[in-house]
Amino acid sequence: MRWRVYLSGFDLIVILCICGLVARAQKGIPILTYHRFDSKTPASSTVTTAAFLSQLDTLETNGYTVVPLETVTDILLGSAQAPVDPIAAITVDDGHSSVYTVLFPIIKQRRIPITLFIYPSAISNASYALTWDQIREMLASGLVDVQSHTYWHPDFRKEKVRRSTGDYAAFVDTQLSR
């Protein structure tokens, strides 16, 4: 397995878009990013199960095939061709337990690959988070890839202001590698 350090959320999308523009001109590849899933009550970073299923149906109706994020990065960096056209990728930030209870059954049924960006300090520690056993089960399905979000989900803007340049660089390295 190849390991790559990915950024999450907006930073990831910006970097992938830039890589795509630099690597070669081509059609954009949608990357849908989620955080939490709930059957009834969406919070600001939560999507209802019905809305998520509707989004998957829209992708399917419009001929999209969901591929692993690694496939998208390979395409945008010019080291691979799209297996089919059009394609999209799905990522999920943070490692909320609803990834296992709500999302995982859906992706297993529909055979849809996703990339999780987790922050390990919460896994098996926070009441809202996934457990390491759940992550192992999802990885074993072959549909889930896990990447680094950061170690404990800091606010990098605040950290950059309060740290020296060297300390900040070391902090970022630790957050992304730990």
Overview of this structure, please?
The protein is of the alpha/beta class. 44% of the residues lie in helices and 17% in strands. The protein is built from 7 helices and 7 strands; from the N terminus they run αβββαβαβαβαβαα. α3 links the parallel β4 and β5. It starts with 8 loop residues before the first helix and ends with a helix.
> Quick check: average pLDDT?
84
Helix count, DSSP H or I runs of 4 or more residues: 7
Weakly predicted, low-confidence segments: 1-26
In whole angstroms, the N-to-C terminal distance is 18 Å
Strand-residue fraction? 15-25%
Helix content: 40-55%
List keywords for this structure.
single chain, 178 residues, 5-stranded parallel β-sheet, 7 helices, 44% helix
Topology (elements, then pairings):
Blueprint: H1 9-23, E1 31-34, E2 36-38, E3 46-48, H2 49-61, E4 65-66, H3 69-76, E5 87-94, H4 98-110, E6 114-118, H5 132-140, E7 144-148, H6 156-162, H7 165-177
Parallel strand pairs: 1-5, 2-3, 4-5, 5-6, 6-7
What is the compact description of this entry?
This protein has helices at residues 9-23, 49-61, 69-76, 98-110, 132-140, 156-162, 165-177; strands at 31-34, 36-38, 46-48, 65-66, 87-94, 114-118, 144-148. The chain starts with 8 loop residues before the first helix and ends with a helix. The chain contains seven helices and seven strands.
